[in-house]
Amino acid sequence: MTRKSSMSISFALRNLVLRRSITTMATEVNKTAHAFDKPRLEALLNRRFFYAPAFEIYGGVAGLYDYGPPGSTLQANIISEWRKHFIIEENMLELDTTIMTPAPVFETSGHVARFADWMVKDTKTGDVLRADHLVKNVLEARLAGDKEARGEAATPAVDDKKKKKKAAKTQAVKLADEVVAEYETILAQLDNYSGADIGELCRTHNLRNPDTDNEVGEPQLFNLMFASSIGPTGQHPGFLRPETAQGHFLNFSRLLEFNNGRVPFASAQIGRSFRNEISPRAGLLRVREFTMAEIEHFVDPDDKKHERFNEIRDVKLTLLDRHIQEAGKNTTTEITVGEAVDQGIIANETLGYFVARIYQFLVKIGINPQRLRFRQHMANEMAHYATDCWDAEIQNSTGWTECVGCADRAAYDLTVHSNKTGHQLVVRQALQTPIITEKEVPEWNKKALGKTFKQDAAIIQKVVESMDQESLLNLKGQLAQGKGVIASPEGKEFELNPEILTIEHKTIKQSIREFTPNVIEPSFGLGRILYTLLEHSFWSREQDVERGVLSLPPVVAPTKVLIVPLSAREEFAPLVKEVYAALRKAGVFSRVDDSNTSIGKRYARNDELGTPYGITLDFASVQNRTMTLRERDTMQQRIGSIDEVLAVVIELVNGTMTWDEACHRLPEYDGVQAVDS
Amino acid sequence: MTRKSSMSISFALRNLVLRRSITTMATEVNKTAHAFDKPRLEALLNRRFFYAPAFEIYGGVAGLYDYGPPGSTLQANIISEWRKHFIIEENMLELDTTIMTPAPVFETSGHVARFADWMVKDTKTGDVLRADHLVKNVLEARLAGDKEARGEAATPAVDDKKKKKKAAKTQAVKLADEVVAEYETILAQLDNYSGADIGELCRTHNLRNPDTDNEVGEPQLFNLMFASSIGPTGQHPGFLRPETAQGHFLNFSRLLEFNNGRVPFASAQIGRSFRNEISPRAGLLRVREFTMAEIEHFVDPDDKKHERFNEIRDVKLTLLDRHIQEAGKNTTTEITVGEAVDQGIIANETLGYFVARIYQFLVKIGINPQRLRFRQHMANEMAHYATDCWDAEIQNSTGWTECVGCADRAAYDLTVHSNKTGHQLVVRQALQTPIITEKEVPEWNKKALGKTFKQDAAIIQKVVESMDQESLLNLKGQLAQGKGVIASPEGKEFELNPEILTIEHKTIKQSIREFTPNVIEPSFGLGRILYTLLEHSFWSREQDVERGVLSLPPVVAPTKVLIVPLSAREEFAPLVKEVYAALRKAGVFSRVDDSNTSIGKRYARNDELGTPYGITLDFASVQNRTMTLRERDTMQQRIGSIDEVLAVVIELVNGTMTWDEACHRLPEYDGVQAVDS
Predict the structure, then answer these.
(1) Set of chain B residues whose Cβ sits within 8 Å of the Cβ of A104
(2) How much is the pLDDT for A312?
(3) What is the pLDDT of residue A544?
(4) Residue A408: helix, strand or coil by DSSP?
(5) Residue closest to B461 by CA, chosen among B438, B486, B497, B491
(6) Could you read off the pLDDT of A401-420 as tens digits, one per residue?
(7) Which of A11, A55, A127 to mutate to test the interface with B (most CBs of B within 10 A)?
(8) Transmembrane stretches, by residue range (chains A, B) (predicted)?
(9) Distance from C-alpha of B290 to C-alpha of A557, rounded to nearest angstrom
(10) Above pLDDT 70, what percent of chain B?
(11) What does the pLDDT look like over B119-147, one tens digit per residue?
């Protein structure tokens, strides 16, 4: 159902998505054969070098990971699709700004003061823990122990066995019902607590370091930015950016000019950011260095309508709004974007438009829409710059994880940088109907003023020019009588006459409107999306739990087609070359595997790498110019002439043909069993 | 001629390059109309936001630049072409490793001790200058002053007026002939000098800070890595990587396994690196943060042949070898790669192969081959890890600039990391013919040894097992007589008997060869390539020096086709949408410009942005479904049906058709003058 709603995507993408969703559905049948098995997925990802701890031979560093060949290519494909879906589709202005940032920028933006997490220290070992994670781990462990003591099953869909090991140790201790309720409320509101609140919680509920069972100290703020110093003198402190956003804001005037002075427009940037996390332990879900993709959409604060809103109005979303959470619950609502904006749940059309486009992007690359929700930030939880924020959260073995944030930063950033630097970061818009105002305006005879009042002239001018309309009218009346008296802030009086000052009634026409645009910011954590996508894509063959498969959609699969000659013998070489060249010419990335092992093993290896299609070249290929085509998820094999199979596989990869349609074009290959076992 | 040699590129690319070179030649005629004008290019790049100083509204930071929309897209296109030319063409293994690196890695690699430049301090102001740049600036200024005094012209092809302003002030002072010769020798060998040498030079030749005319102090080493600290405790120092290479080396074992244990193979990575330059002043040519593309090709040290060498054997290169430079000269040689390797000028086939492939890549994206040379590093100049190195240097307004390095790092990196961590970073290769060796081997009765010698047993074993064959034979003889005496390093003697130790003659068959592969490293500085490409592409129209053009090849041009409706009126909207959608479907990136200005002005703006083709939609398009096609360099306009023009422009952009061929397909448009002025 939610999948169907993605059909309301813009006309250009509609057919493609429809066809792709059919393909996926056709093969979904056998993917649930075995429950999700996290250790097996992790072993696969490690064995196939999707990613690995960085500096592994040096013992590794928490929160730093390297992507190997399949992981890098998967990431590059996600980025490429992101570029098409957002930058090209919406004609955004791409940027590439620096990571190293002088300190004054983040002092102005508020990051130096506020981009921080609460940490607590183990009072005996000095180990440092993130305060909110400590609360979460300990309370969840106690709740799990309570369930165990009550003989209840663990929460489904989450790999609890694994989780318990990582978090605090569970002891089967029954809790009073009101304690269970209290813990659940604390957990639902956790993101809303201040450091002092958490300190209080630790004392009240005796929360200790789960690793040592020692008490922890009072929560302290730890700034998450990596610090460095620019230049040889050591006098210019700098930080590694924790987000790419400031690079957009500082270039606002140039971007606006590039867009011929008009809003709305959006800038976009894909790049590395850094956060010195306190104690990252969650694999790719919490890292110290990561690739982001960020959009800053600059919009008139008085008009947050979006001209393409109708295209996504009917996209149905799962929402978890602020009020529900503040009531200590987590009940979600299914609702269309149109309804959510109409009802004021989502603040405006532009924010709603991006929430829907984020949804479409995630589903397109293979995220399961049933495990995707949008959660609104609670008041205290929001970043210091945001006025409203919705996170795309994706469910995975650790729970619901924020993978995309979509915030309305209002005019915060442009205003603070403008105030700090004196550079006007504003839009100047010609008014169609000029604004006419009538008012009293002081007119000076500067020469006479200077001559009469010498060094006091400036003060006098300032006093008169800061008068309100009523005072000016009053002064005008006095002057009409020959003289007017004003007083400086210090109480010194001055007598003015009509030779020096007259007050005139004027009609003023304002034909330019000047305003600071608001910013809607969709911000994507690509590593988190990549990891949850891998979880959603992973399953094992029914007949054999050891045979893992990653059902990545062709659009993001690292390799689209595997070319498998029966052996590395020379007679196959010309055909391998021909097929490889034809695919490359069509822009389809393939790999040849002529390694010295059975065809079945080579296919099994590529199922683990997520390669959707395989082509076998054997003696029949040499004699009759035929080849077989294998589909990863069903393991079905079809046969046809080399040219026909090439035509079909290119359409399959481009999403213009479904596997069912391919099966109509190509007859079944009767050697399936022999090849795939 | 050099251009023609690029035809020896692999079969798949041959036609494309040939056709492209024809296109370029056809339009090269009018590009030399005006001499290169650097301030005008810089104004254009700034106005069109190719790039700009980062944090400009905060006053900027030397050596940090942001890329705006055209610059980002140009960079993305260069990267995309690099990925095709290297990663896909050669089936390299892509990596994406972290920038933040714990200190021990760079301690092992030698960067903490040696990745540094010599700096000098102004003795009065404390300003910091890079020592070799100081020498270069002052000596070049004196040589220029000498030329002026002799009434000679400045060196051609270099924008000297500009250069003088930036470097030391020139005074017209004639120098003695032998002083001129000495200065020229110093400049040719400058990269070869140590810090002490430069200090000596400053004293001998009275070299002072050109900004203040003050003396400078003794050269001191300044490490170029940005330092930071990982985690909340401050106990884990880290550096931002100054190159991506270490990320490849540390993952060597995983990469080797991914490649089924075989060498040669190459890994490749595109990513950000950082160097805390002492006083960067040369725009994009010397920056503190930059995007690199690096390849590490792992190869058998005993076999550096390359299987595709024949494909590039005839590529002709301009070389400047080590011996010429060490003789204080800079005379280049034109030679094919094949000859250079045969004559031992380039050390081996693999190094030669990559030098040629680098050449082909640079020419393909638009670097002028006449302004491209390969310079070999001199002995003292080489990085601490390299055994041979050739830089691709591209000539530009500042002289010859290193844009790609191609080094043979030998086994340096893998060896040091292996020694430090104890992880074997080696290849194990089954030997086709096992190596048979015969030798004396000690055989212990461990029980008897332990019982007799207790805590000395280990020392005894160690002593015997480190004996050479001769000593073992000697001991064997003693034992044959009933007892053998050995001594520990401290001189303590032990008496052994045949019950404890026998020495046996054995035949040992070694069927596995274990070796540390060597590394050939092509390393690209993308910002330098991008900037020199912009210089090589820039020219002004003959009729009007104000009308700048960037003749970027379609393959890298930020926008391929500009769609220009006569006006923003609604009647053109359906056609604009149709043409835009058709181009996007064909993978051709176009932009619509319906801004409220003349068609001529819109084309002029896009000439500055390097957009190679333009399509005009007017009333005739609405009535007859025709449209015109404009070529950027010649400003020629042709006309045809919408479908035909679309077919032609797609072929032009893909490089499968030349503009001459297009002119045969489409008749001339007779409204050229009206539209383009």
Answers:
(1) 58
(2) 97
(3) 65
(4) strand
(5) B486
(6) 999 999 999 999 999 999 99
(7) A55
(8) none
(9) 29
(10) 91
(11) 999 999 888 888 988 999 999 999 999 98
Question: Would you tell me which residues 582-611 of chain A have a C-beta closer than 8 angstroms to some C-beta of chain B?
Answer: 584-585, 587, 589, 591, 595
Lookup: tokens for A398: 């650790």
Alpha-carbon gap, residue A487 to A473, rounded angstroms: 16
Q: Do A65 and B91 touch (CB under 8 A)?
A: no
Sheet holding B220-223, edge to edge: B128-130, B116-121, B220-223
Contacts of A476 (CB under 8 A, 6+ apart): A440, A484, A503
Q: Is the previous residue joined to A264 through a cis bond, with omega within 30 degrees of 0?
A: yes
Cα–Cα distance measured from residue B156 to residue B505, given in angstroms and rounded to the nearest whole number: 75
CA distance A394 to A367: 8
**H/E element, B252:** helix B252-258
Are A51 and A66 contacting, i.e. CB atoms less than 8 angstroms apart? yes
Which amino acid makes up residue B478? Q
End-to-end CA distance of chain A: 36
Average pLDDT of adjacent 10-residue blocks, chain A of 677 residues: 29 33 40 74 96 96 96 97 93 96 96 90 89 91 90 54 52 89 88 88 92 91 94 90 97 95 96 94 92 98 95 97 86 96 95 98 97 91 79 96 95 96 94 89 91 90 90 91 89 90 90 95 98 96 81 97 90 93 90 89 94 95 94 95 97 94 94 44
- CA dist B335 and B312 (Å) reads 13
Distance (Å, rounded) from C-alpha A550 to C-alpha A655?
A: 18
Mutate to test the interface with A, among B106, B117, B222, B228 (most CBs of A within 10 A): B228
C-alpha span between A328 and A322 (Å, rounded): 10
Give percent above pLDDT 70 in chain A: 91
Pairing verdict, β B316-320 and B289-299 = unpaired
* Range B399-419 burial, b when 16+ CB lie within 10 A, else e: ebbbbbbbbbbbbbbbebbbe
3-state secondary structure B623-671: HHCEEEEEECCCCCEEEEEHHHHHHHHHHHHHCCCCHHHHHHHCCECCC
Hey, which residues does B155 pair with through a beta bridge?
none
- Answer whether B626's CB lies under 8 Å from B562's CB: no
In chain A, positions 178-197, which contact chain B (CB-CB < 8 Å)?
none
- pLDDT means per 10 residues in chain B (677 residues)? 29 34 40 74 96 96 96 97 93 96 96 90 89 91 90 54 52 89 88 87 92 91 94 90 97 95 96 94 92 98 95 97 86 96 95 98 97 91 79 96 95 96 94 89 91 90 90 91 89 90 91 95 98 96 81 97 90 93 90 89 94 95 94 95 97 95 94 44
Q: Are A669 and A628 in contact (CB under 8 A)?
A: yes
Can you tell me the distance from the alpha carbon of A459 to that of A486, in angstroms, rounded to the nearest whole number?
Answer: 11
Work out the angle at residue B92's Cα, subtended by the Cα atoms of residues B86 and B95, and round it to the nearest 5 degrees.
105
Nearest neighbour of A94 by CB, restricted to B73, B291, B584: B73
Question: Phi, psi at residue B399, to the nearest 5°?
Answer: 120, -150
Question: A119: which chain B residues are within 8 Å (Cβ-Cβ)?
Answer: 232
Could you tell me the maximum CA-CA distance found in chain B, to the nearest angstrom?
114
Does A88 sit within 8 Å of B96, measured CB to CB? no
A399 three-state secondary structure = strand
Q: Which residues have a Cβ under 8 Å from the Cβ of A466 and sit 6 or more positions away?
A: none
Tell me the two tokens of residue A491. Answer: 């109480």
Contact between residue A238 and residue A230 where contact means Cβ atoms under 8 Å apart = yes
Question: 């026998």: which residue's tokens?
Answer: B502
